[in-house]
Design goal:
Helix content is 10%, strand content 49%. With 153 residues, the protein is mainly β. The protein has a single domain, classed as Jelly Rolls. Strands 1, 2, 3, 5, 6, 7, 8 and 9 form an eight-stranded antiparallel beta sheet that branches. A two-stranded antiparallel ribbon has the order 4-10. A hairpin with a 2-residue loop joins strand 1 and strand 2. The chain starts with 9 loop residues before the first strand and ends with a strand. The relative contact order is 0.28. The model has no long low-confidence stretch (mean pLDDT 95).
């Protein structure tokens, strides 16, 4: 059994958000990974599709508007959504931002955030940053994930 707390997690600043790896896939034999994300207001990744893993998003604080395939819902604190692989999805945070728990199975996708992010110098959402979509698209490709559309607005 592996136990993590804030003294043992890996924290990164990723495209204007704070991300903390709570369960690294290396600690689960590759079975699962879990990350906590702190997103600023109106934050959205490009529409993307995972070909390798299924994903669960659980809203801890705030709200997000999530899209998966043809479905779009608003999720608030305490709600979770299962996002199956091979179905394009994205989301956008509300005006107050959001804290979201992300679970991936199998694990491994956390490494993309670690590779593409910068070590977090503090436990906070970083200063705003312009997203470099072509750079991210190249970085995400080895993880069998691809961008297929723009972020939500």
């Amino acid at each position: 059994m592996t136990i993590t707390d804030t003294s043992t997690t890996t924290d990164v600043w990723f495209e204007g958000a704070f991300m903390r790896v709570l369960v690294d896939s290396k600690d689960s034999g590759g079975a699962i990974s879990m990350m906590e994300h702190w997103y600023p207001a109106n934050w959205s990744p490009p529409l993307h599709v995972h070909h390798r893993e299924d994903q669960v998003l659980h809203v801890l604080e705030g709200e997000i508007r999530a899209r998966s395939g043809d479905s779009e819902v608003t999720m608030t604190a305490g709600q979770a959504a299962f996002l199956p692989r091979d179905i394009p999805h994205t989301f956008v945070t509300g005006e107050a931002g959001a804290k979201v728990l992300e679970i991936n199975t199998p694990g491994g996708f956390e490494q993309f955030h670690l590779d593409a992010g910068d070590p977090a110098l503090e436990t906070r959402i970083p200063d705003p940053k312009e997203v470099d979509v072509p750079k991210l698209a190249a970085a995400i490709a080895p993880y069998e994930c691809e961008f297929v559309g723009p972020p939500m607005s």
